Amino acid sequence: MDSYFSILFTEVYKILFLLVPVLVSVAMIVWLDRRVWAFVQKRRGPNVVGPFGLFQSLADALKYIFKEIIIPASSNKLVFVLAPIVTMTLALISWAVIPFDEDFVLADINVGILYLFAISSLGVYGIIMGGWASNSKYPFLGAIRSAAQMVSYEVSIGVIIINVLLCVGSLNLSDIVMAQQNLWFVIPLFPMFVIFFISALAETNRPPFDLPEAEAELVAGYQTEYSGMMYAMFWLGEYANILLMCAMGSILFLGGWLSPIDVFPFNAIPGPFWLIFKILFLFILFALVKATVPRYRYDQLMKLGWKIFLPFSLFYVVLTSSFLLYFDLLPGK
Amino acid sequence: MIAHSVFFYIFSFIAIISAVMVTVSKNTVHSVFFLILDFISISCLFIMIGAEFLGMIMLIVYVGAVAVLFLFVVMMLNVAEQKGQWFSSRWDGGTHIPVGLLVSLIIFFELIIVIGGWKYKPDLLNSLSINISNEVTNTRSIGNVLYTDYILLFQISGMILLVAMIGAIVLTYRERAGVKRQSYVKQISREKNEGVDLVEAERNKGVKIDV
To answer: Based on the structure, what is the number of domains in chain B?
Structure first.
C-alpha cells in the first residue's frame, strides 16, 4: 500500500509540474497573440501592465475571477456549468501524452496519436453543451455551426495523420519524433503540413474559421451567455487547444524535440526548448493568419473541408503509400 | 492489483448507471449526454483490459462523431416533447413501447446464448484460429489479421458503407429552384463589357433585371 501511495504522489507531482507551466504559458500566449495581432495592424497592443505588458493576461484573469457569474434563468443549469469545465479539462488532459524529450513524457502510451485525436474530437462537446444549455438563439446557432465544422475538419486531420503514420509505422508519439531524425516530415509531406495547419485553424475555431463565434452575426456564438470565470475557462481552454494543435503539428511534421541540424551550437540546446521554439513558431503563424485573413462564409468552409482537403489528402495517402511500397521504404518490416 | 479492480468497478458502475439513465431521463438531450458518458466509460474499460486501440477507436468514432450527430438530431427535431409523452400517464396509442420490448427481448436471448456458450463450452475461446501474442501492440495484431486473412470482408464492409452513404445522399438530396450558387469560373472570367449593361428605362415600366 505504501508503494502505491508513493507512486500516486510522484504522479501527482509530475502532473502538477506539467499543468502549471501549461496554464502559465496559455496566459502568456494570449498576450503574444494580441501583440502579434497589434503589430500587424500597426497598433501597440497590450503594453501597460508590467514590462512589455507581459502581465496583462494575469490582470485580465484577476478581473474575471472577481466578476459575477451570471447563470441565465431559463438555462439548463447543470449543463451550463459543466460546459466550460468540460472544455477546460479536455484541453488540459491531452498534454499528458506530449513528449518534451526522450523519456520526458507523462504517459508514453502505444496509441498516443490516437489519444490526441480522440481528445481533440471530444472538444466539440464543451461548445455544444454551452450552446444548448444557454437556451438562447445565438449560442445555439454557434454550437450547431461549430459541431458541423469540427466534425468535418477532423476527417481531414485523421487522413493527414494516416499519411504520417505510414512513414513511421507506430502510433507512439516518441516513435513519430524519432522517425524524423534524418528528415523532418515537413519536407516530403509539405502539402499535408499546409492542410494540417489550415485544418488546425478550423478545429480550434480560429479566424478565418471562427464562424461559431462570429461577432458580426452571432454576438459571441456559444459564449454569449457566459460571464466571469466561466467565460475565462472557455477562453483558456480554447488557447490551450490552440497550443496543443501547435504541439501536435511540431511533433508530426517539425521533428518534435529534435534540433534542426545535429551540429554543436544546435544540439547543445536541450530538447524541450526546441519543442517550445517550434510550438511558438507555429503559434505566431496562427496569430499572423488571424490578423491578415478575412472570415470564410459557411458554405465556403464546408466546400473547403469536404471537396478540397478530404479528396486531396486521400490522394496523398495513396501517393505516400505507393511511394513507400515502390522504393521499399515501408517501416516496421 | 487493488487499484486496478477499484477502477474497474468505478468504470463499470458509471457505465451501468449511465445506461440506465439513458432510458430513464426525461430530457432527450440529457439521454444523449448519458449515452456519451456510457461510451466513454466503456472505452475506459476497453483500455483497462489492454485493448487500447479499440478503446481509442470507440472514443473517436462513437463519441467524437456518431454521438455528435445524435445530439444534432435530438436538438433540432425537438424529440424532447415526444419522449415526455411516452412517460406521461395519458399516453395514447403508438407502437413505440411494444417494439422496444420486442427488440430488448431479442437482445436478451442473444446475450443468454453468448453467455451459455461460455458456460457450457469453456474451451470455446481456445478454439480461435488466431494466435494472440502479448509481444506486439494490439494495433499491429489487429492490422495483421484485418488486412490479410479478412481483407475481403473488410473491403465488402467498406463497400456496404459506401452504398449506404450514397443511398442517404440520394434519398435526402432535392434540387431546389432559384438557388444561387457561387461559381468561381464565372466570377473570374467576367469581362469588362459584360459587367455593365446600359439599359434605356421607360417611364413607369421599370427594367427586368437578373435574367
So the answer is: 1
Cβ pair A128:B71 closer than 8 A: yes
- Asked if A114 and B60 come within 8 Å (Cβ–Cβ), the reply is yes
Contact between A111 and B36 using a beta-carbon 8 Å cutoff: no
Domain containing residue B41? 1-88
Chain A, chain B: beta-carbon pairs less than 8 Å apart: 66
A203 CB within 8 Å of a chain B CB: no
pLDDT for A319: 92
With an 8 Å Cβ cutoff, the interface of chain B facing chain A consists of 2-3, 27, 29-30, 33, 36, 52-53, 56-57, 59-60, 63-65, 68-69, 71-72, 75-76, 137-140, 182
Average pLDDT along chain A = 85
pLDDT in tens, A159-176: 999 999 888 888 888 888
Helices (H), chain A: 2-40, 56-66, 77-93, 112-122, 124-133, 137-168, 173-178, 190-203, 215-218, 228-252, 264-267, 271-292, 298-303, 310-326
Residue B93's pLDDT is what? 54
- 10-residue block means of pLDDT along chain B (211 residues)? 83 91 82 89 88 87 85 73 54 67 91 80 63 72 84 93 93 84 84 77 77 55
How crowded is the C-beta side of A199, counted as CA atoms within 13 Å?
Answer: 30
Is A81's Cβ below 8 Å from some Cβ in B?
A: no
Give the model confidence (pLDDT) of A223-276 as tens digits: 888 888 888 888 888 888 899 999 999 988 888 888 877 777 777 778 788 888
Residue B211 in any domain: the answer is no
- For residue B67, is it within any domain? yes
Q: Which residues on neighbouring strands pair with residue A101, listed in sequence order?
A: A104
- From CA A32, how far away is CA A243, in angstroms rounded? 12
Put simply, the answer to whether B68 touches A132 (Cβ < 8 Å) is no
- What ranges do the domains of chain A cover? 66-326
Q: How large is the ipTM?
A: 0.81
Q: How many angstroms separate the Cα of A196 from the Cα of each of A167, A284, B202?
A: 16, 16, 57
